[in-house]
Structures are given as C-alpha cells and as structure tokens.
Amino acid sequence: MGVVVLVTGVARHLGARFVAELRRRPGVDLVVGVDVQPPKQSAEEPAGPLAPYRFHQLDLRRPAVARVIAEHRVDTVVHLSVSATGLGSTHRSAVKESNVIGTMQLLGACQKAPGVRRLVVKSTTGVYGSAPRDPAVFSERMQPKDQPGSGFAKDASEVEGYVRGFARRRPDVAVTVLRFANIVGPQADTPLSEYFALPVLPTVLGYDPRLQFVHEDDAVAVLCRAAAEPEPGTANTGTFNVAGEGVLLLSQCARRLGRPTLPLLLPAVSWIAGLARQTRLVDVSPEQLRLLTHGRVVDTTRLRETFGYRPAFSTPEAFADFAAAQGPGLLPPERLAAATDRLAGLLGPDRAAVTPAVPNRPRRPRS
To answer: What 3-state DSSP class applies to 57?
Structure first.
C-alpha cells in the first residue's frame, strides 16, 4: 500500500502547487486536502497519471480533522496553513486562532492516530525576529536576541513549540520543521509581494536591510522531499532553514523592480503602514516593518549537507523571476542599473556597496 498524505492550507497558491506536484509522485496512493475554503479550480488538469485527490472543507480549529485522518488512514501530514494572513478574515485574532489553535487540534488528532508516521510543518525564518543586535547570519540552533512579541512570527514560534512537544510524545513519528525565507515567484501571494507591488516603496531612512528569498519552485521541491522517505546519505527530520543562496539589499530589490524608494523616518513609515492596513491597500505588519528595517539572513548549510537539497534559484535569481512577472515600474530597471554602475565606478571599488557575488550555475529543470 502506498502513502496517503493529508495537506492543510490547499486553498492557497503554495498548497495548491504542492498538491499538484505530490499527485505526480510515484508511491502516493491518495492526497487529502483540507482548508476552510475550497481551492480555486485550475484552468487545466496536469497531464500524466495522477494519484486520487479528496478535499474536505473544514476549520482546523474544530476536531473534525481527526475524523478525516481516521477515515482515509493518513500516514503523512503536511501542515501548510500556518500563514501571515487569513482566508475570509483579515482580523488578527482570527488569524492567530487559525494558526495556533488549528495547529493544536491537528497535532492532537495526529497524536491519537497510530497510523501517522510523518509530520511536516511549514514555518518561517521570522521566528528569528529582526533586531539591530541580531547576528549577521542565523543558524537553526540560534535563539533570537528579541523573541517575536506579536504577529505571524510569534504564531510560528508558538506552533514550533507545540510541534516539539508532539515529537516528544510521539517519538515514532518523523517530524520536519521547514523555516522558509520569504517565498517569491511569478504568482507569489504573500504580504511582502504586495509591498513590492506598490508604485513607490516607503523605506526607513538610514537603513538598507539584507533580504533572502526562496523561489516557489524550490519551496515545492523541498516540501515534496520532506514528505517522502529520505534519500540515501541524507536525513529529512529536524529543523531546516530554507532560502536561496546569496542576499539582496532592499535598495537592490527596488532597482530590479524599477520602483523608486521614499526614505522616511521610522515613525512616519509606521504611520503609513498602519494606514495601509486600515484601508486594506497592503498588509505591512509591524514584524514586516522590522524586517524592512533590520533585515534577516539565515544559514542554509543543513539544508544542503543534511537534507540533501541545493535550491535551483539563488536569492537574486528568485527575485529576478518574481520581478519579471511584475508590471513595469516608474523607473526602467536598465537605466537605474546603468546609473548605479556609473556611480559605483566614480566611487571606486572600496566605497561601492555591493552584496557578495553569487556564482552563476545551470538551473535544474523544473519539475
């Protein structure tokens, strides 16, 4: 008998893509999707043999998920519904309940299901926070200088705590926590992608944070590898940072998009962010504002050497693919790049601020 996989959060773009890829994988007998809203119907069904798919519309905060796990004899659970935004509600308390209470209900159902053998949880590098006293690079064993006090990062931190408790109670279950950097791609639907879609990007005066990204193709590939048995010489249990190699400064991101920046004092940017949230123009949360002030970089050595996966897209390549799908900015990126190169030449190599070069390498074919 093959694997039966239950996936939460299938109404979102990443969940839908993961389900479509999972159904193509050999050895998967059935994929069960769970979400509070039905997923959007895709324009065309993927070609080739596909594993059957069943969808259950339910709220993870209710105990009904235990019945679904028992009904389909699920042995692998992939939890993707921990998110910065909610479906059908933008109220912060509802999002927190869905993230934390929903995870508690799911873990309780998994604990009572003797057939569950593998659990994969999507988390975020936001659990490290963003603070001026942070180390240059975070590894999985490091603790943040300032614990996240609110928002999605605090939800993810609490979720990881409950997952660690579950792992102690069910040592027979292989548990994987994936801390993703900001996911980008042609169809990215994250709050940060909404920020980059603004015609003018408000920034904090005097700060140019370092950012990391992971392409949605790599995110799906990592999830598929985590949901399967580990390949020889690798291990896919534990906690892993997931990000493309290299970094980008926020100013470099703006130039690649052709978006002018508007540097403002931090109180002014905070006021604009609050106004944008109230008018639902864009959801720039306080934690995202801290990221856009202090930045965050994580170490991905364990992802490459232990997990056995090297992202096909570096951080600059992932952002370039995202930028290519965006509308043209007010300033042509080519002219901005040419002007920046001329300025760097005038300043000289010692004063030109650049990020570490990332060597080009052939991309792996997309699955």
So the answer is: strand
Provide the 3-class DSSP secondary structure of residue 4: strand
**pLDDT averaged over consecutive 10-residue blocks of the chain (367 residues)?**
89 93 93 90 61 94 94 97 70 84 96 96 94 92 80 91 97 97 88 86 94 97 96 95 97 93 90 72 78 95 97 96 82 56 53 40 46
Q: What is the DSSP string of 219-271?
A: HHHHHHHHTSPPPTT----EEEEE--SS-EEHHHHHHHHTPPEEEE-HHHHHH
Q: What is the C-alpha separation between 61 and 213, in angstroms, rounded?
A: 31
CA distances from 161 to 60, 103, 109, 156, 350 (A): 18, 11, 17, 9, 45
Length of the chain: 367
Residue 184, number of CB atoms within 10 A of its CB: 27
**Alpha helical stretches, state H, the chain:** 13-22, 64-72, 92-96, 102-112, 151-169, 191-196, 216-226, 250-257, 266-278, 286-294, 301-305, 315-324, 333-347
Angle in degrees, 0-180, between the axes of helices 286-294 and 151-169, rounded to the nearest 10: 100
Contacts of 278 (CB under 8 A, 6+ apart): none
Antiparallel, parallel or unpaired: β 261-264 and 53-57:
unpaired
- SS (HEC) of 86-107: CCCCCCHHHHHHHHHHHHHHHH
Q: What is the pLDDT of residue 89?
A: 52
Phi, psi of 175 (to 5 degrees): -115, 130
On whether the CB atoms of residues 77 and 120 are closer than 8 A, the answer is yes
Distance separating alpha carbons of residues 252 and 213, to the nearest angstrom: 13
AA identity, residue 279: T
